[in-house]
Structures are given as C-alpha cells and as structure tokens.
C-alpha cells in the first residue's frame, strides 16, 4: 500500500461553488456553533475551545433590548434597536467578539427585524423609536392560500408587525446593523425572513450590509418553508435554512425510517444552505409549537452527525448538543479537515456507499480523504467482510474520536477490502448502537504494517 501525507494546516473556507463574489463566498462557515440563549460573558469563557474543535463561526442570541421576560423567546421580541441589552451589555458583547477574533472565530448576530414585542402597552405606544405609522395593520396569516401577502403583511403570532417599506423603519434597523458591524460582527442571521418581502430584504438589508462591510460578512435567512413559501423565494438573496433536508432526515432517522433514503436526499440544491439536525424551532422542550420535532431527541443527534459529515451545506450545531453528545465534536473536526484537504485539491466529494445495504447503518465516503459511519439502531452492527471496490477509499484511516486505525487494501483479485478494523486480527466494519464514527486519511507513517 502507498499512503499520501496531506497537509492539515490552518483551515481555508470553501466558497460552495456558486460563483459569488470572492469576498463574500470565501467566508462560508465550516460549522456554526449556536450559542442559544447563552449570556455573552459565559460564551466568552469557552469560545476559544470552539475554535480548537474546528468551528469557524459562533452565532449569538439577539442583542437588541427586548421583552423583559427571562424566557428565551423574549430575546426575539424587540423593544428598542438603539440599545444593546440582550444576553449582556454592549461592553459584554464587544468583549466576546474581541476574544472570539483573537481565536480566529467569527461571530454571527441573530437579528429580529420583522416584528416588535407583544406588550400590553402597545396600544398606547409603545416602542421609543417607532410611531403607529411604522406598523402594518393587524391581520391573520394564512400559510396555504397560495398568496404570500398575509405572510409579509400580517402579524406573526400576535407580535406587532413592522412595515419594512417605511423609510423610518429601514433607517432605524440599518443603524442597528451598523452598530453591530462597528462592534466587529462578521455576519447576520435574519430571523423570520419569510415575513418580509424578499426584494425588501435584499435592497434594505443585505445590500446595506454588503456595502457597509465591504462584502466581508456571511449572512443567512431563516426561511421556514410551507405551502406558500419555497426556498427559491429567498435563496437568491442569501443562504437560507434547509428545512427540506431537515424533514428528509426526520423521516430517515426516526423509528421505522430508512437511512438508504439518504443516498439521494431531498434538500435545497444550494451548497450554502444552513443545515441542522435540530434547532430551537424544532425542539419540543423549548417550543409548544415546535416544527416537526423528533419523538426521540437522540435521533436528532444522529441526524446532526450526518449533517457534519456532508460536503454540502453549512452546519448549524445547537450548543447544548455540542456539549452533551461526544461524537459531534469529532464531526466538527472531521468537517474542518475535509474542508482543508479540499482546498489543496484533494477529492472530498460526498457519496453514500451501497456496500452496506441496511436501513439502520449508513456509510458515506468523502472522496478518498475520509469516511463516516452512523448506526441508528440500538444494537451493534458487525460485518467481518466489507468490499469497497466501488469506492474511492484506499489506504490508512484514523477514527477521530476513539483513535483506532482502519486499512483498506487491494487483494490479488484487485478488489478492495477493509483488511484492518482497529486490529489486524479483523477486517470488515463494527460500530456500536446509536453511534457515529468519523475517519480521516492518514500518512503511511501512521499505519503499522500488517504482520
């Protein structure tokens, strides 16, 4: 066997191949850590550890002054855009950004532009920056009438709906975006984007951000698809959240689902799309109106592992999951290594292999540079022989979490087999139940020759 040593130097972010301007496209995250409802000073304490794990970006809780309730949803009900009073003060946020930048980690601000807080004093006014003329009239949203007017012009769940066509509204919110840029923010998530007309988001906000930042930010839009809203309505403006892939994974990883359906997964055909196994909108413990939640949270964790293994998409990892699920930090490192190797010209194309034909076990190659295995069954999976002739894999690989080695060799019949799985005493493949494994190609010096 001949093994190739490839550099694992500092990560260079991939553009996603969309023909975007270089300054914007080069900033696509490797992976985003979602510091959901965390105080800024708390996040500062571990932000450099995230960079060491392989994260390129951190997403923070909304920063503007919001509803006074201590519940997480209050951060998504603005009161005053002129005041930084989210999960910390303006000084707390600036210190977090400075520390993150010192570790080469970028920071994405979650911004809420569509609506204001649901406060009893709204009728008597209300919010210090706005007048009644800055709000749309109250009406109910119909998500399935074939007309997007109610989505963009009506109140969202009783939250006073701002009229983004008003110059005063745009000016106030642009000043807020500029304040965040001045603090050092590197990108933006626009909450509830489908409730603002796409043309308005582009001209009033994304174009403004691009001009003010000289095209250096990476931005995405929360777009929850429904009968009236498609990803294509908005992903011409910026990357959007991939609820199409989420629903595909929800079916595949849940009880009775078949992982073989992920050989050709339904997803938004956009390499930038933000992908996730779960987020705060899909977790039943956080939201009584959770969107298509998993019955079993560990199924969502395994879906998150799959998201990190893919070449396509921009993974968003819920902070609690990164802390609690040990294989996810290995997945972040795997993604970082694959991104690095792709930037030096190595083959890292994703492909779910048919060598394992199982509804509960999925084997994905990343070209010749790595592979991923996930087992959603509670029972271990063990096969003593694994023929990988039709794959790109060959050579020596190391599992990132457990550290054991795997060898894939050609035999006399010129077919490729796994000849070592952990020890030279066995080949094939073995994985425990409810687990995920990530392997990266190693140089010859890292692979002990067979006896």
UniProtKB/TrEMBL annotation:
Enzyme kind, highest EC tier: hydrolase
Q: Which domain of life is it from?
A: Bacteria
GO terms assigned for molecular function: hydrolase activity
Please list the residue ranges annotated as the Glycosyl hydrolase family 13 catalytic domain. Answer: 30-335
Catalysed reaction(s) here are:
Endohydrolysis of (1->4)-alpha-D-glucosidic linkages in polysaccharides containing three or more (1->4)-alpha-linked D-glucose units
Recorded hits in Gene3D superfamilies, A to Z, give: Glycosidases (3.20.20.80)
Q: What is its EC number?
A: 3.2.1.1
Q: Which UniProt keywords apply?
A: Carbohydrate metabolism, Glycosidase, Hydrolase
**What family, per the record?**
Belongs to the glycosyl hydrolase 13 family.
User: What protein does this entry describe?
Assistant: Alpha-amylase
């Amino acid at each position: 066997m001949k093994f190739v040593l490839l550099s694992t130097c500092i990560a260079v972010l991939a553009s996603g191949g969309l023909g975007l301007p270089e300054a914007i496209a080069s900033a696509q995250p490797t992976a985003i850590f979602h510091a959901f409802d965390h105080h800024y000073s708390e996040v500062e304490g571990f932000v450099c550890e995230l960079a060491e794990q392989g994260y390129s970006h951190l997403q923070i809780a909304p920063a503007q002054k919001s509803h006074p309730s201590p519940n997480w949803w209050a951060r998504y009900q603005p009161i005053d855009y002129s005041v930084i009073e989210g999960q910390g003060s303006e000084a707390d946020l600036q210190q977090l950004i400075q520390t993150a930048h010192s570790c080469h980690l970028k920071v994405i601000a979650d911004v809420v532009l569509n609506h204001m807080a649901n406060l009893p004093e709204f009728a008597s006014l209300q919010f210090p920056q706005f007048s009644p003329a800055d709000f749309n009239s109250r009406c109910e949203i119909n998500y399935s009438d074939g007309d997007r007017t109610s989505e963009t012009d009506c109140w969202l769940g009783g939250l006073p709906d701002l009229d983004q066509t008003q110059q005063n509204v745009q000016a106030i919110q642009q000043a807020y975006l500029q304040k965040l840029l001045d603090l050092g923010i590197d990108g933006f998530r626009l909450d509830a984007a489908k409730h603002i007309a796409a043309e308005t988001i582009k001209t009033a906000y994304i174009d403004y951000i691009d001009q003010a930042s000289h095209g250096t930010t990476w931005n995405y839009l929360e777009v929850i698809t429904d009968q009236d809203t498609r990803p294509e309505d908005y992903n011409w403006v910026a990357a959007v959240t991939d609820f199409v892939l989420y629903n595909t994974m929800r079916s595949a990883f849940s009880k009775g689902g078949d992982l073989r359906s992920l050989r050709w997964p339904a997803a938004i055909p956009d390499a930038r799309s933000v992908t996730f196994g779960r987020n705060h909108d899909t977790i039943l413990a956080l939201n009584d109106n959770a969107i298509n939640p998993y019955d079993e949270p560990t199924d969502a964790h395994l879906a998150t592992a799959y998201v990190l293994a893919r070449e396509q998409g921009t993974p968003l990892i819920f902070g609690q999951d990164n802390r609690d699920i040990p294989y996810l930090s290995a997945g972040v490192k795997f993604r970082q290594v694959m991104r690095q190797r792709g930037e030096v010209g190595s083959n890292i194309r994703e492909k779910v292999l048919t060598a394992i034909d199982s509804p509960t076990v999925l084997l994905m190659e990343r070209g010749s540079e790595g592979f991923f295995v996930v087992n959603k069954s509670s029972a271990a999976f063990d096969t003593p022989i694994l023929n990988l002739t039709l794959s790109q894999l060959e050579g020596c690989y190391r599992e990132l979490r457990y550290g054991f080695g795997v060898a894939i060799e050609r035999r006399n019949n010129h077919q490729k087999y796994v000849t070592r799985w952990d020890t030279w005493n066995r080949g094939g493949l073995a994985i425990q139940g409810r687990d995920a494994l990530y392997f990266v190609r190693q140089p010859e010096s890292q692979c002990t020759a067979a006896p």
